[in-house]
Amino acid sequence: MKTTLLLLPLLLLSCLPAGAQNYDLCPALDISGADLCNDACVFCFLDGQEGSTQGFTGQDANGFCDSVENEQWYGFVANATAATISVASSTCLYGNGVQVALYPACGATPLPGGCNPGVPNGASVPASITVDLIPGNVYYLMVDGYDGDGCNFKISVDPPGAILSGNPVKHEILLCQNETYAINGIDYAAPDTITVITPVVDACDKIDVYYLLEKIYIPVAQQVIFCPGESVTVDGVVYQQPATVTKILPGTGGCDTLLTYNIGFNPDAGACPSCSETFFKTIGFEGQNVRGYGIFEAGDGNLYVTGTKQDSALLMKIYPSGGVIWSRTFDITPGANDNIAEVIEDSEGMIAGCGQSGDLQPDLTGFAFRYDPVSGNMLWVRTFSEESPYVTGILEKAPGGNYLVYSNPHQPVNDAGLTEISRLDGSFLPSFLSKRLNLGAADNFNSALISNGNFYGVGRFTMGNAFTDMRHSLTRIDLSNGDITYTTLNHVPPGNVARLYGMDLLLEDTNIISTSFGDENGENLNNSRIFLHKTLVTGNLQWTKRFDIEAINGESVDELVSVPDGYIMYCHNLSGAPGDLYLIKTDKSGNLVWAKKVDFGFNDNLARISGQSQIIEKNGYLYFVATTTDENGRSQMLLVKTTGDATLKGDCDFITDTPVTASEVFNPSTWAVAVVDMLPSLTFSSATAEPVATALRIDKACKVYVDKQVAVGLCPGESIVIGGIPYFQEGTVVDTVPGNAGCDSIITYTITALPQPERAETILFCKGDSITIDGNVYTQPGIVVAVAAAMTGCDTLITYTLEYIETPNAALSISCSTDIDLPTSPGTGPVAVQYPLPVATSDCNCPGIALALTQGLPPGALFPPGTTMVCYEARDSCDNTASCCFEVTVREELGCDIKETACMKYELLSIAHSGTSDLTYRIRATNKCANKLIYTAIQIPDGTVATAPGNNTVFTAQSGRMYDVRNPNYSPFYSVRFKSQADSISNGQSDIFEYTIPGQAPPAYIQITSRLYPQLFYEAYLNTFYCPVQAAAQQQGIAERDATDFHTSKELRVFPNPTDGLLYLDLSAWPPEGRHIRIFSSQGQLVQEVAAIHEGQFEVIRLPKTLPDGLYVLEVRTATGIRETVRFVKQDK
């Protein structure tokens, strides 16, 4: 097979995977990158793409190797396993250039080697990354201005073609064996991936990807149904439950066939009556003759039945229960009786059959056909128009192979015929297997089989021209070359008068079991007896057994079937008109086991049709067909199913024992003969036979009972109703249940008293919890009795004991936050304070700890200036309690130097030693505008690296807001930079930034700059000479006073502040004795010293009139060494 596709000439081979990701191409070639990764489209020409970092806002870039300020995103599809992506910047505002990263998906982290953070003053150096890629996957390139730099840039990709230039359209092409597919004039016969790229002007390329896949199988499904309680054999395996079975059937050309058997129970409940264990049925049609000839097992576990309806061939499919699935008639030779001799189900599930049309010599016409039982179509019919043959059987040479038809041509001589025909159309094949075997005047094959590459046929061969020369024959032919391995005759030696007919055979291991009948001492069939033979496959006869049915003179055997423990022969009466049928069973050694007679009306086996299978064994049952007559003399098919010992259930008495005399033939004779191998002379013709659905009348000849044994358990206090009668105690009850198809069931119930199931359970629960039992809620300990309903058996009586969970000596602990000291600007008022809730732990076995605020304010509340005590109490499920407290101090702190811009206010709060020579600087930044703060950079001495916070760490302000730290930072000056992670200060909010540098004299001033969203910059210079360097403890003020001297807050307050010369000092919380007051300038010079003489709330201090305006520090010290300071500003009105 060949299919062709014409395409434009540009053809590229690629390795795009079949499972490539879905994506949206950019709507135009000249659009810019996206502000968010999730909004990025896929660029088909990323190489050469130009853009600018200006106008973009800083967003989150997960896992980036630096911070981002104005990043943008570009999507693309990889078309190579590796690539180098470079971004060259130009016309940068600050000369820093760009930084880049490549992500495998939005929200992921950069690829290995896919992150370049850029360098300071790096505008002249392209930012490049080299990464491994997966062709067909979508990636996202991030471009960001280094430190927020605004740059133009251009993207380049190496190697060329590493990025896919369009959106591939996927085409899956399935190729069977010996099939090709043409793309652009090139034929492809094997699996491959072909990519065709067609350039499009001013748009992405058109890309077609053809996935040439191997199609191995042609799927065919076949439904196999059977009745519950029965079994079905599929491909040699027995199934008793629904299943799905697959089988590969080799194709003679093209794809193989994948045959799927869907095995399930028959959905037609009426087709599986309860009385189907055995049956005895007649099948007929009003005013017409219906005859039964053969029965054969189907691959799906059902059965095929053959016969005639008037003069047309009849083919039926039935369930093992006897229900008809479908029935068809075929009129092969109009005006003649069409008799099907044999059918088989071949390896493809088709029915192949053969037979002949006509009744008498020399007007017989042989035929063969192939029929599709699923579609109901006749695939082909062939007739043999010469030699007036008896066609006795058909075989499949091998799975998927041709057929062999064996026959007995009668004109001009009676020879055993073997003909090979095509499975495709039934035509004659002149092979070495098509031949005629001639020994004498009357030679034939009555039955045959194929095993291990050999043909075995049984029949009769005549050594001369008289009936007295007929012998049972056995022939073996090698199918590989057509050679006749042997033909043997038995069991009466040559020269003796005998008339013997070989009829059927089967193969077991290395033995051939065959049957024959006839007169072993003459030619009179009234003296016929039945014989059973065992022969090795090499042709050596082992034994012969003789059987004489005492009730008749002259008997014939038609069929032989193997059962697990022996063999069964299907026989009939030869003398006079056909009459009763007989069944004879032997063991595997040929010894008689039993014999039965089938006596119903006028049984007719239609002896002129040889080779048909009239009996089979399946799953321990015997099935056989015959022909009988109705009360009007019309023929009817007889369809029978018995147990393995040929008995019927119910009131059927048509099968009875019959006496048979069995004996052994001593020293049976066997000898080989030379058979003449001749060419056949059959003439084949095509014929038509349209299958016609036909309706038949099915009657049951006797009533069948099904015996059932049912065991019933009786629970205490209950009853069981059988046949409308309640029973309350043990005993045996027999009930007859009418069947829906005339088949009653006799059910024997055995009633047994069952004990009451009981069990006890203890349920532990915590105080305050509840337990629900049978819909009732229990909150207290106690005993509850309940009944648990059972799906099967008796209900269970359950006794529940409910108890509290106890924890002796359980302990509870609680831990509060440490004291909190929060500096704030003077006049700010109450401040929102966040603090962690206390942590409570308990070893109580019941979970749950309740936490209650007993004093103070909750987290996030506005705390007033001063000290607020906060206390919590914890209570666990064992009623244990524990409490803890801590202090929150809101301290107004005035900066040493204050600078304000339009939006920003900066305050240098303190400079203090950090326990070493290092100096710690604390600067408060207040954002008075609505634009969020992006970052603040604070100048440090050139070449110095702050010892805290560390580079690439996170600084957490007292407000809880977090900032990414770059230490050192190079742009716009050498500094420590604090960049907000998410939420930042605005609308008057403040944060205190703290950093430590190695010990050295403080600089004269500190340069500080801030960037507000999106591109607003503010800077100021804070003077350090107003801030004396403090010891480590001094910068914390009262927060670090000795707790043994102060039990309540000793906050020191002065007002007004600023003052024009008169200052009031609040000393209400200080002890009255020994208070000493000193005032220092911002440079640490003592300018005034007084002793507090008032014991009241306020102390009034008059400042010297010559004191210049500026920042001053007031110190209060007690005789015990307690010291506190406060800053104030002196400013004339």
Task: Give a brief description.
By secondary structure, the chain is mainly beta. The protein is built from no helices and 91 strands. It is elongated, with a radius of gyration of 54 Å.
What is the topology?
Layout: E1 2-5, E2 50-52, E3 72-77, E4 82-90, E5 98-103, E6 115-116, E7 127-132, E8 138-145, E9 152-158, E10 166-175, E11 180-183, E12 186-188, E13 192-198, E14 205-214, E15 217-226, E16 232-234, E17 237-239, E18 243-249, E19 256-265, E20 279-284, E21 290-297, E22 303-309, E23 312-318, E24 324-330, E25 338-345, E26 351-357, E27 365-372, E28 377-384, E29 390-396, E30 403-408, E31 416-421, E32 428-429, E33 435-438, E34 444-451, E35 454-462, E36 469-478, E37 484-491, E38 498-508, E39 511-519, E40 529-536, E41 541-549, E42 555-563, E43 566-573, E44 581-586, E45 592-598, E46 615-618, E47 621-629, E48 635-643, E49 655-657, E50 660-665, E51 669-672, E52 676-678, E53 684-687, E54 692-693, E55 697-700, E56 705-714, E57 720-722, E58 725-727, E59 731-737, E60 744-753, E61 758-765, E62 771-773, E63 776-778, E64 782-788, E65 796-804, E66 812-815, E67 820-824, E68 831-832, E69 839-842, E70 849-855, E71 862-863, E72 866-876, E73 881-892, E74 897-900, E75 904-913, E76 919-927, E77 933-939, E78 954-956, E79 962-969, E80 975-980, ...
Parallel strand pairs: 1-11, 10-14, 15-19, 36-38, 56-60, 61-65, 67-73, 75-84
Antiparallel strand pairs: 2-9, 3-8, 4-7, 4-9, 5-6, 5-8, 11-12, 13-14, 16-17, 18-19, 20-48, 20-55, 21-22, 22-23, 23-24, 24-54, 25-26, 26-27, 27-28, 28-53, 29-30, 30-31, 31-32, 31-33, 33-52, 34-35, 35-36, 36-37, 37-51, 38-39, 39-40, 40-41, 41-50, 42-43, 43-44, 44-45, 45-49, 46-47, 47-48, 57-58, ...
